[in-house]
Amino acid sequence: MFSFLKPAAKPEPESRPLRLPDGDVVEILWVRDARARRLRLIVNEGGVRLTLPLAASLRTAEAFLFEHRAWLAKQLSKRPRREVRPSFGRGSDLYLPLRDQKLPLGLRDGRYARVDLDAGKIILTLPETASDAQARRALKEFYLGQARADIGRWLPKYLPALPGAPTSLKLRALSSLWGSLSPNDDLSLDLSLVLGRPSAFEYVLVHELCHLIHRNHSRRFWGEVEARWPQWRDERDYLHGDGLALKSELKRLIA
Question: How does pLDDT run across 130-145, given as a tens digit for each residue?
């Protein structure tokens, strides 16, 4: 039997202004999402986004934004200015970030584009005719390899106490999130984490692994996180403070 009833159209995103405590006005993109279970405010390079459950009322959303005005102003003040440094390429950088350090960059001629870590120095090998795009691809593969190595060291100590293991693991540049766990247990982590301090990277891994136990951010979920990573608040504060700069730097280096 066929139904001629059309599903309800998804509400279109809309932009609304919000006046901050200092008098500045910021435009916020309101997005209603059927998957959302709570109001969520995100600041990234693209601007400010408020995600709302479909049933959330206008009054509830406005009250939520009003309560978070000071937090929003603080986050916007930390947002890195638009990138003025050139994209990564041959001769563009003397140092490269890795695990919260600035390591000297060396150049070598070779048949293939590749990046290696050698005695505390990052070595970029390029053919004479290689393009800057090839250099960025090689750097991306280097960061992927370093991030996988970190996860490979950390993951085994947490798996025995979990109900299972992630189905898959993906490392990529995420615009706002640091990680996510899908309903199918596919784990995604932000590649820019490998640029910052390792303890924050490991915390994000622990956070997402704990979602294998609780698929929410309930008190029981945070109890699981704290049991495995008692200093999680320090890492959260670090990511709130330096996270946008990490994401911006990764984009400059590999995009």
Answer: 999 999 999 999 999 9
- For residue 250, with 0-12 CB atoms within 10 Å meaning exposed, 13-18 middle and 19 or more buried, which class applies? buried
What's the confidence (pLDDT) of residue 175? 79
The answer to whether the CB of 113 falls within 8 A of the CB of 127 is: yes
pLDDT tens per residue across span 195-212? 999 999 999 999 999 999
Residues whose CB is less than 8 angstroms from the CB of residue 109 and which lie 6 or more positions away in sequence, other chains included? 125, 126, 127, 128
* Dihedral sign, Cα of residue 143, residue 122, residue 238, residue 62: negative
Please, are residues 77 and 241 in contact by the beta-carbon 8 Å criterion? Answer: no
> What pTM, to 2 d.p., does this model score?
0.72
Rounded Cα–Cα distance for residues 39 and 19 (Å):
19
Q: Nearest 5°: phi and psi at 148?
A: -65, -35
Helix orientation angle between 232-254 and 132-158, rounded to the nearest 10 degrees: 160
Among 12-16, 120-124, 197-201, 219-223, whose mean pLDDT is lowest? 12-16
